[in-house]
Amino acid sequence: MSPLHPLDEAATARAVIDGNGTLIHWNEGARRLLGYPSEEVEGRPAADLLASPDTDALPGAGDDRRSGVLALRHRDGRVLSVWLLAHRLERDGGWLVLTPLEGREPRAPQDPLVRAVLAQAPCAMAVYDERLRLHGLNDAMSEVIGLPEDRVRGLRVSEISSRGAGERLERAMAEVLASGRGRDVETYARAGGEDRAHHWLARIAPLTDTHGRVIGVCVAAHDFTEQYRARERLQLVNEASVRIGTTLDVTLTAQELADVCVPALADFVSVDLLDPPENGGEYRVGPPAAPVTLRRAAHRSVNAGDPEAVIRPGDADVYPASSPQADSLIADRPLVAPNGDGTLEEWLSWDGPHGRHVREYGVHATMSVPVRARGRILGVVVLSRFRRPDPFTADDVLLAEEVTARAAVCIDNARRFSRERQTALALQRSLLPRSLPRTAALEAASRYLPAARAGVGGDWFDVIPLSGMRVAMVVGDVIGNGVQASATMGRLRTAVRTLADIDLAPDELLTHLDDLVVRLSAEAGAEGTAAEVGATCVYAVYDPVSRRCTLAGAGHPPPVVLPPDGPPRRIDMPSGPALGVGGLPFESVELDLPEGTVLALYTDGLLESRERDVDTGLRLFCRALEESPQHLEGAVHAILRALLPAGGAPDDVALLLARTRGLAASDVATWDIPADPALVAPIRKQVSGQLEVWGLTAATFTAELVVSELVTNAIRYGEPPIRLRLIHGSETLICEVSDSSHTAPHLRRAKTFDEGGRGLLLVAQLTQRWGSRHTPEGKTIWAELPLLGEE
Q1: Do 510 and 374 belong to one domain?
Q2: Are residues 630 and 684 located together in one domain of the fold?
Q3: Are 538 and 553 in contact (CB under 8 A)?
Q4: Per-residue pLDDT tens for 80-107?
């Protein structure tokens, strides 16, 4: 007889009888077995097929399952002994009767040697025939399945074991039966009546007769639960090393620890940490004293929504000595509290809400493990079980210690990083301007945002008032992050303000700044090697009188300009080398900016992202700038919200928006001065007349003295052409005298009998500020007079 496929339903005799004992279904297998076609038996009492009048052998109305031997009458009159297995069918209210093909009850092997092998085998063994029905098994296998041999003999493994494991094992047995080659199968099932499931290795081998024909299979089951759990523990440790510490964020790291332990090790895990010491100190080395104040960093439950959590993440609570958290920290070792020994009940008494939740969810085992790194205690992890019935074992404690130790180092690293980040951020913010100056040339708004996860970088911005009501704008980015980058940023910002104060052109200013970065690199290096100190920068100067802007860049993204009557566009300008390269020139570009133009300067962190390229970021930026509100503060907020992800920027971001203003022609007066000292007096009269027009008569005396001194010095020491310009601002009056000489005046204190040398000293005492700047045509000496209280 060839092996029969175990899933060939047509080969199995099946019949269905209702609760009255009437046959209502007869399949092809039953016809082949007993010879009756379905039309002859369906609708007849099932008892008519019995060879004896004993109707008690048929299933009764109160039975859910029955098996045994029946004597049935064949159509030709023969009596067949068959093995019957009956299941109750809810949908038909009757019974499904399964009859094997052969007309005899499956028996265990009669060979005493075979019986002895089965009985004395050290492992659980079972023998299945060529139809994969149980032929015999030993006592060890009976203990594994939890049923005696006489109750399962003749059944398939899928009818004995749980559906999933049984069907999988039965398919493997069919493959062995068909191929004649043995194989191993891992399965998961409960042993006997135990609540705890075991892992089994089923070794399936073919059985052959003297002619080499496969007549069945032998299944030997080996319990490798401990080896499997050891493999699970190793896998959990490896998973913890990969999943914990992916960021330098304390809260996320604590959450990763809880996520790894649930459900692999516990049903609920809470991570409570000590608050960082004040003034940036280190955590204590020894265990703390009770009571202990801990802050919930994270927790995780097998139940959605963490309904059994009393404390929410971010909240702090005080834990007395009777709590698992405090007891574990004071003992400085893991503590396990199984239900029933009194420890868990004692722990529950310390807090009413905790106790109610533990009783409500049926927590039967709790383990608390201190979080310790580099010899210092950081907090405690509490693991609880309420869905899993098994208690914590010694191996579970070792596993929890190993996972917690790995997480503790990551938490400590995250806290050290956070402390350094806060220090760098505090330094960064202290070095950035607290507020932007109010100027008549433009309205400005700015924002600096540190990176969400990475270290604080060296992005900076500034708005610097210059002479002649001009304004300088600068945005830069120092390479690197941390305290060193913030300190370098502060030095560069100070250098820019110093160089801007002497009115250097943008390209010249970047040249001097490049030299400074080269020197900083040399100073930061060791043993003659230069450190990697570098930066990018864009510097712009806007003149409200001419409404022209001069820009120069050093490896920085060009600004974006939004005209009052057109779409935004990126300024086409030479990018220039980054600061610190050294030896390469910088170029500037000039462009007209109508009044109301918005100039946007930014760092690359605003545009760059892992989800998009720079060009896409630029398009989003231009669209957000065009659609932003008129108020610049609102525009800054709208742009950052449109371009940056919800979790924060991956890199530092500095953004500076400036809307230009123009100075009316009526607020500027210009005179060409002949190189004749005798004409200084008429010039003073013209200045007095102009001030009267502007309503600044109170400033006439001071303005005449300043103009007289500056014009006289230009005629005496300068070269023609000479020009005088007065600029009427809202708070200042600016006097400028220009000539074509490149020699700059110097303030000096005259001696008692000197006839000269007191002019510029007088100017310095009468004005708010004064200075000089070089131009392509020569130089300009300027002075600012305050107008507070005027008009």
Answers
A1: no
A2: no
A3: yes
A4: 766 566 666 655 555 555 444 343 333 4
